[in-house]
């Protein structure tokens, strides 16, 4: 691939081979087409690039200046491409990852610190949103990776299951509790669960860690994902699982497969269930 338009390439060949006949043979084109291309280039610069001399051509001062600038441009372009190709072969640059805070604590904490320690030139940016928003951002190339619950199928998404969680009821004393239920309003399908407890007082808490702490301090019941509740030893699970949730890694299949992307992907794949 060359950054110069064809007329400039023809001109550089004429600089090396200042003969219309021989240059046209090298370029695999008709002499008349090469002459027309040269004339077009001279018209654009409003001056002669060559003068005829016997059977060949002699470069003018304008021609020499143009040759120098074009060779400089080609050299800088080639150096720049090579430099950036080498950069792409290194584990460096920025990778954007999205997920829920629960995912960050229980899954990403096992990988992100290792990657940061191993690759000092790698920048890992993390965004915390709902699974639906994370999925949308991965589809739209706003994020490189997402960790989401029960992802929807999409033709551009690659989905790798990491683990299966569940949402359940938790309390300090399952046999003796007040008729108060604490829950996160952003939890998936929480409205279905709350319908089972119409006679209870409903208390929304839009943060899982705060919600779990409320469960420890209260005498009511709390709807929690098991990874959060498991960190609080005083809480006990009771009753059936309210909802099972597949926690998955997702990425867009159209995302360029750079060395950096492949390296991070390989580390995340180690988390996946077989």
Description:
The protein has 274 residues and is of the alpha/beta class. Among the domains are: 6-88, Arc Repressor Mutant, subunit A, CATH 1.10.10; 164-246, D-Maltodextrin-Binding Protein, domain 2 (3-Layer(aba) Sandwich), CATH 3.40.190.290. It contains 11 helices and 10 strands. The chain has helices at 6-16, 20-27, 31-45, 61-88, 101-106, 112-118, 131-139, 190-194, 208-217, 226-229, 259-269, and strands at residues 50-53, 56-59, 93-99, 122-128, 145-149, 157-171, 180-183, 201-204, 221-225, 236-252. Strands 4-3-5-10-6-9-7-8 form an 8-stranded mixed beta sheet, with helices on both faces. Strand 7 (180-183), helix 8 and strand 8 form a beta-alpha-beta unit. The radius of gyration is 33 Å and the shape is rod-shaped. The two termini are 43 Å apart. The model has no long low-confidence stretch (mean pLDDT 88).
Structural key phrases:
single chain, 274 residues, alpha/beta, D-Maltodextrin-Binding Protein, domain 2, 8-stranded mixed beta sheet, rod-shaped
Question: Topology of this protein?
Answer:
Layout: H1 6-16, H2 20-27, H3 31-45, E1 50-53, E2 56-59, H4 61-88, E3 93-99, H5 101-106, H6 112-118, E4 122-128, H7 131-139, E5 145-149, E6 157-171, E7 180-183, H8 190-194, E8 201-204, H9 208-217, E9 221-225, H10 226-229, E10 236-252, H11 259-269
Helix pairs in contact: 1-3, 1-4, 2-3
